[in-house]
Write a structure and sequence with these properties.
Blueprint (H helix, E strand, L loop, with lengths): L18 E6 L2 E6 L4 H7 L25 E2 L18 E3 L3 H16 L15 H9 L25 E3 L9 H10 L4 E4 L6 E4 L15 H5 L5 E3 H6 L4 E6 L8 E7 L2 E7 L12 H5 L14 E2 L8 E2 L2 H19 L4 E5 L5 H15 L4 E3 L6 H10 L17 E5 L3 H4 L1 H12 L3 E5 L8 E2 L2 E2 L2 E3 L6 H14 L5 H7 L2 H12 L5 H8 L3 H13 L3 E5 L1 H4 L4 H14 L9 E4 L6 H6 L6 E2 L3 E2 L3 H11 L11 H10 L4 E5 L3 H4 L3 H9 L3 E6 L11 E4 L8 E4 L4 E5 L11 H12 L8 H11 L8 H7 L1 E3 L43 E6 L24 E4 L1 H6 L7 E5 L4 E8 L7 E5 L27 E7 L5 H13 L6 H4 L1
Parallel strand pairs: 1-4, 14-15, 14-25, 16-17, 16-21, 17-20, 21-22, 25-26, 26-27, 31-35, 32-34
Antiparallel strand pairs: 1-2, 3-4, 5-8, 6-7, 9-10, 10-11, 12-13, 12-27, 18-19, 23-24, 28-29, 29-30, 31-36, 32-35, 33-34, 33-36
Helix pairs in contact: 8-25, 9-25, 9-26, 10-19, 13-16, 13-17, 13-19, 16-17, 22-24
The structure holds iron/sulfur cluster (3 copies) and FE2/S2 (inorganic) cluster (FES).
Length: 948
Amino acid sequence: MALISEIDYGTPAVKSDKLVELTIDGATVSVPAGTSIMRAAMEIGNHIPKLCAMDSLEAFGSCRLCLVEIEGRAGTPASCTTPVAAGMIVKTQTPRLKALRNGVMELYISDHPLDCLTCAANGNCELQTEAGIVGLREVRYGYAGENHLDDKKDVSNPYFAYDPSKCIVCNRCVRACEEVQGTFALTIDGRGFESRIAAGQAEDFFDSECVSCGACVQACPTATLSEKAVFDIGQPEHSVVTTCAYCGVGCAFKAEMRGDELVRMVPYKDGKANHGHSCVKGRFAWGYATHKERILKPMIRARISDPWREVSWEEAISYAASEFKRIQATHGKYAVGGITSSRCTNEETYLVQEMIRAGFGNNNVDTCARVCHSPTGYGLKTTFGTSAGTQEFDSVDDADVIVIIGANPTDGHPVFASRMKKRLREGAKLIIIDPRRIDLVRSPHVEADYHLPLKPGTNVAILDAFAHVIVTEGLVNEAFVRERCEPAEFAAWASFVSEPRNSPEEVEKVTGVPAETIRAAARLYATGGNGAFYYGLGVTEHSQGSTTVIAIANLAMATGNLGRSGVGVNPLRGQNNVQGSCDMGSFPHEFSGYRHVSDDAVRSIFETIWGVTLEKEPGLRIPNMIDAAIDGTFKGIYIQGEDILQSDPDTKHMAAGLGAMECVVVQDLFLNETANYAHVFLPGSTFLEKNGTFTNAERRIQRVRKVMAPKNGYEDWEITILLSEALGYPMHYKHPSEIMDEIARVTPTFAGVSYAHLDEVGSIQWPCNDKAPNGTPIMHIGTFTRGKGKFVLTEYVPTDERTGPRFPLLLTTGRILSQYNVGAQTRRTANVVWHEEDLLEIHPHDAEQRGIRDLDWVKVQSRSGETTLRAKLTDRVAPGVVYTTFHHPLTQANVVTTEFSDWATNCPEYKVTAVQVSTSNGPSEWQEKYREMSEHNSRIAQTLDAAE
Ligand code: SF4
Ligand code: SF4
Ligand code: SF4
Ligand code: FES
């Protein structure tokens, strides 16, 4: 295996239908008009020396190394900034050019330490390579004069270092931060010889605006900006392309290795979701894979109060299987179930649901999408006929009006946010509907045209008001609706939204957003060109989550913003494979491809292939399983890669349910919070240790490739097979590719998917079948999956969770850039330096009324429970609203969330909890008790050897 190297064409590709023909070094080349000479030369494999150019950045023309001669033109223009012209005759190698380049390179090298042999970048340094290409053999200027060789290093960032002595001031890092990442953290400080890169006004990278995306490090042609791991481990020798296991953007990375050690994750330019960009999590936060707290041996215990006992795989599997069989024999076959993981691969998820349906013989399978995007599935299936987003990420490049509702892309989906910001800097308009002032409301060179800071829980009201404006002001795209949608349903909807109670003036009373702002924003969406909705959990995690998704779909249909690039309804999925886990049949009522278990024809496909009779009644959802456990009818659960105790609402209720079960089997990397209630712990494998596929938020199926052997001994799919066999339902897959082959055989939308096909084309967006052999980037072109689009009435129903004298504030929750979900992985990386604890954001006005100062400990109480954490005073939240993250288990944010959930899907109402906040001296009684119990429950008995 070798290091995968990608071609750098020097300047970005140009989109143009017009081709221009020219001659370069005697060869004829034809390229799109507007292409640079440098890129045209590279198209025919002719590398022109360069230092300041790279194809992810606009040409800058500063290093003067890429000079060429053009027949009929005076001088030696820079090939990176000179566009091609028809009939041009270009020479890239002449004695004059060689002498000029030599002189330029000599100047660079004269102020550069000549420590190549001991430099971390040795062998992987563009300056070194280009000096070789230019043919520089001698440097006439010594180090006697002024130089920068003693400039101080900045090692403040946990993952990369800045060594100014090696900087050639090529500006690539500054431009990468601006153009690719959109953070504008870097500047060139000083002029001429004094010029140096500076992280904003701050003293070092850590204290600057830098968000550690790594784009500057990747852009740097020298060792000036380098990953610290390269210093520690050495230059990588071989690499494998795989997919990030954090969020639903699905960035492709080259995992670069030295021996069997991972040196760095480098974003892959050919990755269709990220185009070579990354965020701090995927790029740097993979150290959890080798964290000392990772559990590598299976463990069992008879009671959860016992210490864990390490056992062999055989013993753990046979114990778990015998427990499940005993429970089913005693309490009936419905007394057990399982939860699939949106962190695991499609293949692993498919196997878990297969084991439950065929091995347990019931449909008690659910997934963590229950608590995040299940309303997306329901809402989009009802209106369009498919439970998935309509677009590809690239579509945002064609959007004219971007509406973000209930999402915080710069924190939750950072790589896509960078793309979106680029489009916004180009002039697209922005509407943000969010109770909190997220970063995109105002950030460098991006400002929302309208921010609608609505009261939590009033999404449906505001979207109905949008619809009211669109219908009553004659802004409906009549032609689209006539041709593409069910007429009767549209008429009923139009009449409903036109009612005065849905007018912006009435809705202002409910949402707190001025009517004029609602009107202006609605008009902009309907008339501003291509309008695209992007939404997140701030839409779905409500008692009206499904209604809100439907309301967005209605608006998109009414304005004709569907079926082409630049428009659409785009759910920003949370976890890396939440789309995939839903696609794979993780819900109790659906087989893969969203087909109902009661459908005899579909069931018979699976019965034939699995050789069993399957249940036609849907099984239990997660909340039902927990309720049934408390009632004493549900006794055993298999949980793969999911920490329901921390991530699901109403922690005390969840704890009571898990505590009531007789056999809880947890398969995970760490002893997570749920494992406090487990009887069997099966060590899981990381994404670096397995083969499979993930499906991202744009339905893009991408390969996950094994980079190293599983430290626990097995890939997760292999563990499910062991358990299934012990249960008496043997499976015969030898490799995840065989599982995918079966998925393709039984799932029409996956019919054309195979590992060979994925390897050939890189990635595929489903549906992929005979009609769309290479997948479907944009859905519903010409017609909806369900035929005609269906408008559905979206009556605003206030949540039962109301503020009142006892609980006067509304708590809403979210996440931040450096941490991920329950933090099990990111808390075990250096990312903790950016977020050591969850804080409660509270408006200074509310804080003052309660005598709360910045960073004081506060008690947050709801009718479900109470917790304590420290307060952060900020006007990012409106008066009356408080906000926190739930990345740290001891925060116990979900102790206060309630049992309310979406009417259609049971997705919990995380985003609205009525609370009171008051000063506190420290952790609540529950937190103290929980901490003690957690320490107690994670004891591992000494092995005999160790004890002796
Ligand atoms: S790491 Fe990213 S955000 Fe930080 S300075 Fe570099 S490009 Fe900018
Ligand atoms: S730090 Fe690297 S990329 Fe930035 S100006 Fe210096 S050499 Fe160029
Ligand atoms: S944006 Fe998401 S998928 Fe991409 S690197 Fe960051 S966490 Fe990974
Ligand atoms: S590469 Fe063209 S001027 Fe630097």
